[in-house]
Structure formats: C-alpha cells, structure tokens
Amino acid sequence: MDKMLYIAMSGLKQTLKAQAVNTHNLANVSTPGFRADLETFKAAQVNGDGFNSRAYSTTGSSGVDLRLGSIQKTGNDLDIAIASEGYIAVQSLEGKEAYTRNGNLHITGNGQLVDNRGRAILGNGGPISLPPASKIEIGTDGTVSIVPLGEQSNTLAVVDRIKLVKPDTFQLLKGRDGLLSLADGTDADADGSVRIVKGSLEGSNVNVIESMINMISLSRAFETQTKLMKAAKEADEQSTRILSLN
What we know:
The chain is of the alpha+beta class. Helix content is 26%, strand content 30%. It has helices spanning 2-27, 208-244, and strands at 37-45, 55-64, 71-73, 80-82, 87-91, 97-100, 105-107, 113-115, 122-123, 126-127, 133-138, 143-148, 157-161, 164-165, 172-174, 180-182, 196-198, 200-202. The longest helix has 37 residues, at 208-244. The mean pLDDT is 87.
C-alpha cells in the first residue's frame, strides 16, 4: 500500500506546484505587459523488480506564453505599448539588460526614466536620464524628446532613444523577476523595425477563462490524489486488522 501512497503523494505535490503557477498568472491579470508562465506535467516511470507499472508525477516549466496582450489607450504621454512583436530594454535590479512589454513609464526625482517597478529604461548609451523639461514626448521609433524649461512649446530637443529589440522568441527565458533575457546571456541588438503606440499600455496576456478552467481541473486532480491517499490508508488499516486476528 505504501507504493500507492507515494505515487498519490507525488501527484498531489506536483498538482500544488502547478496550481501555484496558475494562481500567480491570475494574480497578474491586470499587470501591464505580463507574460503568463507555462507548466507541464510529466510521468516518470519507476524502474526495478517486477512490472514497470508505476509512474511518479513531475512538473517542468515549458517556458513562457509570448502571445500578445490587448492594447488599451490611456492618454498618458509616458505610457507606451509595442505595436506588434518586440520588447523594451530595461536594466534589471541586478544591473543586467533584460526585456519587457511593460510600458508604464515614470520619471524619478533625479530625472531617470524608469518603469512602474523602478527599473531603468535603457537607451543608446545605457539608462536614460532627462534634464528638467516642461514636456516629454516619446516617438513611435522610441525617440525621447523634451521641451526644455524656459523654451517655447515647439522647441523639441532629442535626448535619447529607447532601446527596442526583437530577438528570436525561442531564445528568450523568463526570470523570477518577470523579465525576459536571452538564454545565452548576451544582449540583443536594437531593432529599428519595432514601433511604439504612444499613450497606450498593453495588458496581460493571461486568459482569465482558460486559467479559471485550469484551476478547477487542478482542484479536481488534487481531490482525486487526496482520495487515493485516504484509500491507501484505509487499505493499510484493514490489512493490519486482518493480520492482528492471527
């Protein structure tokens, strides 16, 4: 009966892991540019004496869902979205270059252009810093222009250009911070074909209906594994009682 118990327990454990991933996706359904994590189940056959009739459950990440999210107009000059394929280059908290679709930008007190999590937006020569300005404008090609303080509103000065990239999606890995990076650790080259939609944000690509159905399916699998563990316990108790009669 211990074999049945351990197999059911392995299924229970991996179901909990998959449910955690699914819950994390649902929790970020309103996060701009969020890309859903993907999780897969795999059977690991137990080899040994007798028939190969037992298989333990394992989970493995199959990557990240890179489908595009819907673009919503916000009217905020510092909100940007990628028109189709491509990513915005940012500096991770570890100081490395990484990529995101989150275009909810802000200006810090010292003039640095950052996303809504405080990560620096990268330009031609590193993090973008802006001098005091009465107006900031971001072009469709990522060019960042300002109207310097004291100048007329039609006086635009180009300060930098946001680094926009379009790497091979098969080379992208998602880190624990939610940012994407190249699997070989290198930095992607800037791609001039990537275009920005101004005054808009791309939403999460999490499909709420699919995730809710997946949550129900995982909950039922959890209940099934729990019942199997209970059945294994009852069978063991019955065996103990029968043996005690002797």
